[in-house]
Write a structure and sequence with these properties.
heterodimer; A: mainly alpha; about 80% helix; globular; B: mainly alpha; Helix Hairpins; 4 helices; about 0% strand; elongated
Chain lengths: ~500, ~120
């Protein structure tokens, strides 16, 4: 059983290897390799999860026989196993759900590069989840940025290239701030491994030395990751990036890449700085305010859109606001709710992006609401899937979105009134706003079309078997998160308790 | 007293000012090439910061030549290692940005983001 301790390392190496092997291959072979690797990743992560739940403790994998404090390490506990499992599943589903559009959007000769990029992205995300070394985290943040930009710019139309440039600029601003933040932290603590940094930070806090530099370093890291994950007011790059990319890329970028940055931030908060110190410094207060503002502003912007992809993209900005608001509550319950919402959003947003692409296909490729009228009748499965995703985002019972809203509300009533009231009020307003734009869209797609739209056609289930399978698995994941939420929430709690 | 550490930490001051210059250029400049230059200034500032922090007056680079094995004689090699890693990352990102700007220039025949944005919006209609 102890062999499972190697799995985090195997998982990361496998993706890197797959990326190198796929480079000279043709698109088809590269696709097979990628999908196989993602399926294997799912199994590896599931083994890690079961192993850590079984043993009840986390383990450290030492890279290359040089131990702490000099060597490089990976660390896996229940939290890491759970996140890696969901990330691998969502990656597998997003790529397989977007295959049809990959054929349409990408030139034949460049198709293998797409899979090289997704392999690298998977590896980078896994490394961000598992790493115990803060500089390794920075390197993989940059790898994921480059790979994410790659899967974005591979669709060679003007708007996508422009979106890729904007994404790159904002990402670089974010990683620059993060880099100077970790350099300052290294400067203050003298270590790069998270456990050793934690010990030094405790000593610094106890002695009261270097209080301002410590605050500055933490703020810089937080700001960097907030820009990269698209928290209000840094969400300007979000709609173009998610809206003009090919559906698989949009799903991966909004569902996984932005979450990877949040996870590494949570790891730094809990394992380097210490949750109590963080709350004391006051970073959570700032995140709380911007999180609340993001929840409202993202939703209002989504209401104004006339394009389904951009609407879903703006809704992502609102959901990122939820996650940061949860962190900003400053309690373990809030943090756990934020982690649950990471999973909830990771399974729901790709479902929405991929089903929206199915609806657009049945409407002559148009993503405008007026052309999408009645599209749920032309592509029934995509219609059902979009409705399920919309229900989850609005927070209907049984779906995962309901549970995360419930967890946020429960966490909110445990804190002081000054935070409880704004949280509950904004949560209520945001739910209403969500309902306005998601249910409006659902009603739109189920209203019979008045006139025939050029290029619209009925898509039968026999034409899109694998696509429907992907949608059904996504809906099932959503229902599993919604119905068996207790187990997932317990696992998150257990994982977070392993951090300290 | 305020400013007492100013001259003691002159390198770090310079690094942070350079970082600020790079950061604002990357954020606000409308020309893509200047943005890339800004990014490079920003990253170089971080490397300068690391290198100056990692250097201890009077100690040598950590390569044993005269048989001196005491750790006191050398500086810590890790900051230099981090700088090298950072340079590799920075070079790849610069290459990526340049590739993107070539593609945009071929399509829109300008390097100014405002103009590119305007043309792109016209294309939509």
């Amino acid at each position: 059983m102890d062999f499972i301790r190697n799995f985090p390392f195997f998982g990361i190496m496998l993706t890197m290897l797959a990326a190198i092997i796929s480079l000279p291959m043709r698109g088809r072979a590269a696709k097979t390799i990628s999908l196989t690797v993602f399926a294997i990743e799912t199994l590896l992560a599931a083994s890690v999860l079961i192993y850590t739940v079984h043993t009840g403790e986390s383990f450290v994998y030492i890279m290359g026989h040089v131990g702490a404090p000099w060597g490089n390490e990976l660390r896996a506990g229940v939290f890491e196993g759970l996140m890696a499992y969901f990330f691998s599943v969502v990656m597998l589903l997003s790529v397989s759900g977007g295959l049809k559009h990959l054929r349409l959007d990408i030139e034949e000769s460049k198709r293998n590069f797409y899979f090289v990029m997704t392999d690298l992205l998977m590896g980078a995300l896994l490394a961000l989840i598992y790493t115990n070394d803060i500089f390794t985290a920075y390197v993989f943040i940059e790898i994921s940025t480059i790979a994410a930009c790659g899967i974005l710019m591979i669709r060679e139309i003007g708007r996508t290239t422009l979106a890729a440039l904007r994404y790159m600029v904002f990402s670089l601003l974010g990683s620059g701030l993060f880099l100077i933040g970790i350099v300052l932290m290294y400067d203050l603590t003298g270590h790069l491994l998270m456990e050793n940094m934690r010990l030094s930070v405790e000593l610094l806090v106890l002695s009261g030395q270097f209080r301002i530099p410590l605050t500055v370093a933490i703020s810089l890291m937080t700001l960097g990751m907030a820009i990269k994950s698209g928290l209000f007011p840094f969400h300007f790059w979000v709609p173009d990036t998610y809206g003009y990319s090919t559906p698989a890329s949009g799903s991966i970028l909004s569902g996984l890449v932005s979450k990877g940055y949040i996870l590494i931030l949570i790891k730094i908060y809990c394992r380097v700085i210490g949750w109590e110190n963080l709350v004391q410094i006051g970073v959570t207060d700032i995140l709380f305010v911007f999180g609340l503002a993001g929840m409202i502003v993202g939703s209002i912007s989504a209401i104004h859109q006339n394009d389904i992809r951009r609407m879903v993209a703006f809704s992502s900005a609102a959901q990122i606001g939820y996650i940061y608001m949860g962190i900003g509550l400053g309690t373990q319950a809030g943090l756990a709710a934020a982690c649950f919402h990471v999973l909830c959003h990771a399974v729901t947003k790709p479902l929405l992006f991929i089903s929206a692409s199915g609806l657009a296909d049945a409407s002559g490729g148009s993503k405008l609401f007026r052309d999408l009228q009645g599209s749920a009748y032309r592509n029934r499965w995509a219609g059902i899937a979009f409705t399920a995703g919309a229900f989850s985002m609005v927070g209907m019972p049984m779906f995962s979105g309901f549970i995360s809203k419930l967890l946020f509300a429960t966490a909110a009533v445990q804190v002081s009134v000054a935070r409880m009231l704004p949280t509950l009020i904004v949560l209520a307003i945001s739910t209403v706003l969500n309902a306005v734009y998601f249910l409006r869209t659902v009603i739109r797609i189920y209203t019979p079309a008045e006139q025939e739209i050029q290029g619209s056609m009925r898509i039968k289930w026999t034409q899109q078997r694998s696509y429907i399978l992907v949608l059904l698995v996504f809906i099932a994941l959503n229902l599993i998160l919604g119905l068996f939420s207790q187990y997932i929430a317990d696992a998150i709690q257990l994982g977070l308790s392993m951090f300290s | 007293m305020f400013g007492a550490n100013l001259f003691a930490n002159l390198d770090e001051m310079v690094a942070i000012i350079l970082f600020g210059i790079g950061f604002t250029t990357l954020l606000f400049n409308r020309n893509i090439i200047k943005k890339i230059i800004g990014f490079n200034i920003m990253d170089t500032a971080v490397f300068f910061f690391l290198a100056s922090m990692g250097y201890i007056e009077g100690r040598a680079a950590p390569i044993v030549v005269d048989g001196v094995t005491s750790a006191e004689a050398y500086i810590n090699p890790i900051p230099s290692g981090l700088v090298l890693t950072g340079i590799v990352v920075s070079v790849s990102v610069t290459a990526m940005m340049l590739a993107l700007s070539i593609r945009l220039y071929r399509r829109y025949h300008t390097l100014y983001l405002d103009e590119i944005y305007m043309f792109a919006q016209k294309e939509d209609k």
